[in-house]
Each structure stands twice: as structure tokens, then as C-alpha cells.
Design a protein that fits this description.
The complex is a heterotrimer. Chain A is α+β, with helices and mostly antiparallel strands. Chain A has four helices and twelve strands; from the N terminus they run ββββββααββββααββ. Chain A has a single domain, classed as Glutamine Phosphoribosylpyrophosphate, subunit 1, domain 1. Chain A has helices at residues 102-123, 129-141, 187-197, 217-234; strands spanning 55-60, 64-70, 73-75, 78-81, 87-89, 94-100, 150-157, 164-169, 175-178, 180-184, 241-248, 251-258. In chain A, the strands form three sheets. In chain A, strands 10-1-2-11-12 form a five-stranded antiparallel sheet, with helices on one face. In chain A, helix 1 packs across helix 2. Chain B is an alpha+beta fold. Chain B has helices at 22-33, 82-103, 109-122, 170-177, 187-200, 230-233, and strands spanning 37-41, 45-53, 67-71, 74-80, 134-142, 146-152, 158-161, 163-166, 210-218, 221-225. In chain B, the strands form two sheets. In chain B, strands 8-1-2-9-10 form a five-stranded antiparallel sheet, covered by helices on one side. Chain B has a five-stranded antiparallel sheet with strand order 3-4-5-6-7. In chain B, a hairpin with a 2-residue loop joins strand 9 and strand 10. The longest helix of chain B has 22 residues, at 82-103. Chain C has a single domain (8-206), classed as Glutamine Phosphoribosylpyrophosphate, subunit 1, domain 1, CATH 3.60.20.10. In chain C, strands 1, 4, 5, 6, 7, 8, 9 and 10 form an eight-stranded antiparallel sheet that branches. In chain C, strand 6 and strand 7 (51-58) form a beta hairpin. Classes of the chains: A alpha+beta, B alpha+beta, C alpha+beta. At the A-C interface, strand 4 and helix 1 of A face strand 7 and helix 2 of C. Chain A: Keywords: Cytoplasm, Nucleus, Proteasome. Chain A: InterPro entries: Ntn_hydrolases_N (IPR029055), Proteasome_bsu_CS (IPR016050), Proteasome_sua/b (IPR001353), Proteasome_suB-type (IPR023333). Chain A: Component of the proteasome complex. Chain A: It is found in: Cytoplasm; Nucleus.
Chain lengths: 262, 243, 215
């Protein structure tokens, strides 16, 4: 992965390309703190961002939602750990998954949990799905000019109707309510398949009236597993294991499936 | 206006015609009226002890401490107003921390005592603050000179001591402290004797129940003596029970 | 003025989790670019009784982190309640410190490895990413040593074996990483009992005669 966002354009020119005054003479950059395979590839200017890859998916049916993510944590071609969760449970009915930069994700999740706790203490109840979705957007937008490099998918069920919904975001908080969404390094592989298989677009064998999402929880689960298995085949930043959270009126259930580790 | 100080006792910013600053004398009075605080320098440690008078018999023992750890090698016993003492201790802690950050080694006791005294002195200079109603008895293990004892008074004066006592029982305790060559005593012995001195200075009829709070600062750092073993105390420890 | 590139740097830190504790290892070199400038520096520090910290990257930043932790431990000591932060809490604290600094665009240029009682092994990098793992390797070690450690790791591994494994990886790093040294330090952090940080020692029996046959 190259540079993440083009946010460097927001940032003041903090670092000149001239050598540091204390630079050792004739020094060859060494990957001691942040390793890269080719030392010459190291950016001349330090970036506060890092792309740790990973794919996240959320989809929702009539009475369920699924939030899924792989557990690989990569730094360019290395995998420092194969067990790095991208998912956090916000309430009994809302689950969040974030791809992008690991440190920003951990910060964001911590921040959200703090705000959820404050909401719970003030309101004596959990945040609803739309409320959590809006709060996530506000949290991301609060760092509009120093973005949190996390690509979020939020899934849950409406506490009133029990219907599942998901929300997709960009790094600075713009979002929309959807039935299926994918983000992260495997997005280009997974999203079109889910569009076709889950949303029923272009399935001409299906009558118009039935084009709305009609998969059962079991069918959707199988679809997500296949989607991740497929992404893992071609995307080097996705793999190791799949964590899947199923949200229904009965509560949340977490399952784990192994993925390719190469 | 016709009180003791005839108008000169309202602020630390004005001397009386006799050259006194009454507010500082009142601050000292606060120390004189509260539980006895004792410090002695023995051969291998400083022993600090406070007669911690319990405000009420319902008070849980071991709460509201008067001897505080400031760094690995320093403890401060507070005579007088506890809350004032805690503020002074907080300042002492940050001085000790700052010294470590700057010089990478433990703050020498003399430097700490000077800085705490300087801080206390500031509170005797301005109309918008009042002096500390406490004495800080600083016991430390100094890397160079070993066990040392300093005391900082409300006016910001500081002296180095071989033995020190202030508070309610100061007269009796000072007399007793004078009889012993503390520098020749071992810590266990000194602890026992200090406990006895404090206990004997009390008026059994009039005085309220107390806990003897004792901390020893030696080469190994700050050690709180929670309870004496029978051998150590010689059965002389009295005061609140443990829980 | 921010640290925009590391000047004096330490290389890899390795760690492995065993049934009876954790082993941490690194060499004792602080390089000035390609110059092996300071050859007997300690990159494993032990401010608390329950954990040790190993660090690579900018050496001055590592000392700053060590100072922060020493201050934290001294404050705990003054509290006098016997309560100390568990290794996991220290790990999270470090993550917050590193993240704050990177967010101020004034990062601490380090990869940190924390090993603690109760078989704790965690990493924090200069961005504030924090995770726990059975095996960790930072710097060049993440390329050369991590695969070796992963292959060697077993859930029933004991500390003697873990130490041998870490030492083997340090040897491999010395052969191949030009910023590594044969003078190393090992920390043994048993699940229970006292932590043991070795003095710097030399990796023995180095064999260079094969060098001519290797590209």
C-alpha cells in the first residue's frame, strides 16, 4: 500500500526534504523503527499515517445484521500479528468494524466506548442504531482536518422494528444507511459480489418484486464467508481469520472462522 | 480592631511595630495545638512519628495519614493542619520528581528542604494567601550523608536537626529527646524509645484516643511501621486498634 | 522541532511467550547511521518489579519513555497502598503515550516491547498501535526473526527453550542485519517470581567460514 489518503494536502508543510541537521554522514536509512523491504522506499517525510489493511463487511436483512472482519494486521509486506481484532461491540444491538490504521482504530473505538458510557449514564438506556451511527460520524468529523484513518462499517438492528440496517462511512464522517457495505483493502473484490448476490441487482432470474434483500441469516453468513475466502485469495492484506458478529433480536453472537494465512 | 494584634494581625503583609507578623505566629499556634510530631536521626535511619489524634472514635484506623512518602528516600511527617500538610507534600513530590527528571538522581535532602521552605515562605508574603498551618518534618536517606532530618516551619524557615518535636506534647518530648544520644541508637531501639516518649507525653485523662503513626527512612527507602511486634514495642504502643 | 528521522538507533527486539513466563532479547548496539557508535547500551529497562521494557528505534526517545515509566512507578511507590499497574495497564498507557505523540506530529521514534508477569507480551509502535502476541519481533527482526519465532513457538514451550530460540534469532540477525551486534541482553520474566535481566554478553561460537559460500 502506498500513501493512504491524500490528506497530506490538508497538512502544513512540516517537514522539509533537506537532510536533518544531525543526520549521520552517508547514512543509509535503516528499517529499525518502521521496516520496509526496500529502504529506499521509505518516505522522505515522516507520515503520521500507516495503512494496516484489512477488510470489513456489514450487511443487514429483515431481522438480522452481520458485521464481519478479518484479523490480519499488516505493515506493507509484513504481518506483525495475525490476531488483531477490527470489531467492537457498541451496544446489544450495534456492532462496529473498522479497517485502515490500527492505532487510529484503537483510538476511535476507545473514544466511542467513552461516549457510549456517558450516554448510558445520562439516558439510562443504550444508544439506538441511528444515534450510534450519527455519533460515529460526528466523532470522525471532529477530526476533519487531521482525519482518523479508519474506514468504518456499522451494523445493527433497529430497536423498534427489529429490522437490520448498516451504515458505511468515509474517514471524515460522511455516511449513508445501506443494506450491505464493504470497506478496506478487499473492498474492490468483495463489494461488487455482495451487490450482485445480496442486493439482487442484475439478477434477472429474480422477479422485480423480490429484488429486495431476501437472504436468510444462514445464507448471508455463508455468503460473507465466501466473500472473505475470495478476498483472501487475491488481497495480501486480508486473511488469517474471519470474525463474524451476528446481530438478531436475541442478541449478538460472535463466530470465528479460519482463513488462509499466507 | 482592639484584639491581640490591634489590626496588625489581619495579614502577613504588614509587620507590627514590634517587628512581628502575627499571622505566622497564629499558624505556629495551629501546630502547637495539634498532635505531637517527632523525628530523630539514629545511626542507620530517621524515625518519624506522629501522635495522630482521632477526630472521632468511629474513624477507621489507618485513614487520614500524617506521614507521607515523597520519593523513594524521603518521607514527610506533618504537624498541624493535615490538609495544609498534604498540599506541601504534593509540592515536595513534584520537586522530587522534577529533580529526578533533570539530574537523573534522587533529590538531596537539603535541596528538597530548601525548596519546600521556599514554597512555604511564598505563602507568608501576599495578602491573598495565608501561611501553611503546619510544620513539615522531612526525614530522608541521603546518598552522601545518610540519615538526615529537616523541619520546615510555617514562616518558611528550615533547619537541620538531630532530633525534633513539635505539637501538643512538645515540651515533655523535647526534654526526653535531650536525654538520649540518638546518633548511637539502632533503628529498632530508636523506634521503641520514640513510641514510648510520645506515649508518656500524653495526658491519660484529658487526651483523646490516638494512633501512633511511624515511618522509618533508611538505606532501603521508606518503611511504614504498621504494627510493632511485641519485642519491638516493649508493650508500649497504645492507641487505636488495627483492622 | 520534531524528530523527523531517528539519529541514534537500536535495532530489533524479540520476545516469546512460554508456559512458565516470557523471554525478551535484543542486542546492545546503538548505531549512528551505519556507524556502530555505542556498543554496550542497555535497551532493556526494568523500572517496575512486574515487567520489563525492550525498545528499538531512536535511543534518546527510548530513554524518555523509560523516564516516563520510572516517574509512574515512583508515583505508585508514594501512594503507599501497594497497588501497582499490571503489565497490561502499562502496555495500554504506553499505547496512549505513543498515539498522543504521533497525533502531535512529534512522535517517539520507537518500537516498544513490554514483557510482564503473568506471561504478558505486548508491542507498541511509534503510531500507538498496541497488541499482544505469542511471539514478537520489531525492526529488522520482523522480517528475519518473526518467521523463525513463529515456526519455533509451541503452546507448551518452556523458558529455557524460549531463551535458546531468542538467542538463535539474535544470532541470525547478527549474521544478516548490518545494524545488529553480537553483544546481547536477555530478560527472563517468569509468570511468578523475580524477573532476571542478564548483563550484556557475547554470542559465542560465531561461524563466518561459510560466508564465502553465501551471496
Amino acid at each position: 500500500m502506498d500513501r493512504p489518503l491524500s490528506h497530506s494536502s490538508f497538512l502544513p508543510p512540516l517537514f522539509s526534504s533537506a537532510p536533518h541537521p544531525l543526520s549521520p554522514p552517508h547514512s543509509v536509512p535503516h528499517p529499525s523503527a518502521a521496516p520496509s523491504v526496500n529502504a529506499a522506499e521509505r518516505p522522505a517525510r515522516w507520515s503520521p499515517y500507516q495503512d494496516n489493511g484489512g477488510t470489513v463487511v456489514a450487511l443487514a436483512g429483515r431481522d438480522y445484521a452481520i458485521v464481519a472482519a478479518d484479523t490480519r494486521f499488516s505493515v506493507s509486506f509484513s504481518i506483525p500479528t495475525r490476531e488483531f481484532t477490527k470489531i467492537t461491540q457498541l451496544t446489544d444491538r450495534v456492532v462496529l468494524a473498522s479497517a485502515g490504521m490500527g492505532a487510529d482504530r484503537q483510538y476511535l473505538h476507545k473514544m466511542l466506548h467513552t461516549r457510549l458510557a456517558m450516554y448510558r449514564h445520562q439516558h439510562q438506556r443504550d444508544m439506538s442504531l441511528p444515534a450510534a451511527a450519527q455519533m460515529l460520524s460526528n466523532t470522525l468529523y471532529s477530526r476533519r482536518f487531521f482525519p482518523i484513518y479508519a474506514f468504518n462499517v456499522l451494523g445493527g438492528i433497529d430497536s423498534a422494528t427489529g429490522e437490520g440496517f448498516v451504515y458505511g462511512y468515509d474517514a471524515i464522517g460522511s455516511h449513508e444507511q445501506l443494506k450491505v457495505v464493504c470497506s478496506g483493502s478487499g473492498q474492490a473484490i468483495v463489494q461488487p459480489v455482495l451487490d450482485q448476490q445480496f442486493s439482487g441487482r442484475q439478477r434477472y432470474s429474480v422477479p422485480d418484486a423480490e429484488r429486495a434483500p431476501s437472504l436468510t441469516l444462514e445464507q448471508a453468513t455463508a455468503l460473507v464467508r465466501d466473500a472473505f475466502a475470495s478476498a483472501t485469495e487475491r488481497d495480501i492484506h486480508t486473511g488469517d481469520a474471519l470474525e463474524m458478529w451476528q446481530i438478531t433480536a436475541a442478541g449478538v453472537r460472535q463466530t470465528r472462522y479460519e482463513l488462509r494465512k499466507d | 480592631m482592639a484584639g491581640v494584634g490591634s489590626g496588625y494581625d489581619l495579614s502577613t503583609t504588614t509587620f507590627s511595630p514590634e517587628g512581628r507578623v502575627f499571622q505566622l505566629e497564629y499558624a505556629n499556634k495551629a501546630v502547637e495545638l495539634s498532635g505531637t510530631v517527632v523525628g530523630v536521626v539514629c545511626r542507620d535511619a530517621v524515625v518519624l512519628a506522629v501522635e495522630n489524634v482521632l477526630p472521632h472514635r468511629f474513624v477507621v484506623s489507618g485513614t487520614l495519614r500524617r506521614v507521607h512518602t515523597v520519593d523513594r528516600h524521603v518521607a514527610i511527617a506533618v504537624g498541624g493542619m493535615g490538609p495544609d500538610g498534604r498540599h506541601l507534600v504534593a509540592r515536595a513530590r513534584s520537586e522530587a520528581e522534577n529533580y529526578r527528571a533533570v539530574y537523573g538522581e534522587a533529590i538531596p535532602a537539603r535541596v528538597l528542604a530548601d525548596r519546600v521552605a521556599g514554597y512555604a515562605h511564598l505563602y507568608s508574603l501576599y495578602w491573598h494567601v495565608r501561611p501553611f498551618g503546619c510544620t513539615a518534618v522531612i526525614g530522608a536517606w541521603d546518598a552522601v550523608v545518610g540519615a538526615v532530618l529537616y523541619a520546615v516551619e510555617p514562616d518558611g524557615s528550615v533547619y537541620k536537626y538531630r532530633a525534633y518535636a513539635h505539637g501538643k506534647g512538645r515540651t515533655a518530648v523535647r526534654t526526653e529527646l535531650d536525654k538520649v544520644r540518638w546518633a548511637e541508637r539502632e533503628r529498632a531501639e530508636a523506634m521503641r524509645e520514640v513510641a514510648g516518649v510520645v506515649e508518656r507525653s500524653r495526658d491519660v485523662v484529658k487526651d483523646k484516643p490516638y494512633e501512633l503513626e511511624m515511618v522509618v527512612v533508611g538505606e532501603r527507602g521508606v518503611e511504614r511501621i504498621d504494627r510493632f511486634t511485641a519485642a519491638e514495642s516493649g508493650g508500649e504502643r497504645s492507641g487505636g486498634g488495627d483492622d | 522541532m520534531h524528530t523527523t528521522e531517528p539519529i541514534v538507533t537500536g535495532a530489533s527486539v524479540l520476545g516469546i511467550q512460554c508456559v512458565d513466563g516470557v523471554v525478551l532479547g535484543c542486542d546492545t548496539l546503538a548505531s549512528y547511521g551505519s556507524l556502530a557508535r555505542f556498543q554496550r547500551v542497555r535497551r532493556i529497562v526494568q523500572p517496575g518489579a512486574d515487567w520489563v521494557l525492550g525498545g528499538g528505534g531512536e535511543y534518546s526517545d527510548l530513554q524518555e519513555v523509560a523516564r516516563l515509566l520510572e516517574t509512574m512507578v515512583t508515583r505508585e511507590y508514594c501512594q503507599e497502598d501497594g497497588v501497582v499497574r499490571a503489565p497490561r495497564a502499562v502496555h495500554r498507557y504506553l499505547a496512549r503515550v505513543m498515539y498522543q505523540r504521533r497525533s502531535r506530529l512529534d512522535p517517539l521514534f520507537n518500537s516498544l516491547v513490554l514483557a510482564g508477569r503473568g506471561r504478558f507480551l505486548g508491542v507498541v509502535d511509534m503510531y500507538g498501535t498496541a497488541f499482544e502476541s505469542h511471539v514478537v519481533a520489531t525492526g529488522f527482526g520482523s522480517l528475519l526473526a518473526l518467521p523463525l519465532l513463529r515456526k519455533a513457538w509451541r503452546p507448551d514451550m518452556r523458558m529455557e527453550e524460549g531463551a535458546a530460540c531468542v538467542e538463535h534469532c539474535l544470532r541470525v540477525l547478527f549474521y544478516r542485519d548490518c545494524r545488529a551486534l553480537s553483544s546481547v541482553q536477555l530478560a527472563r520474566v517468569p509468570a511468578e517470581g523475580a524477573i532476571e535481566v542478564s548483563e550484556p554478553y557475547e554470542l559465542g561460537e560465531l561461524q563466518w567460514h561459510v560466508a564465502q559460500t553465501v551471496a
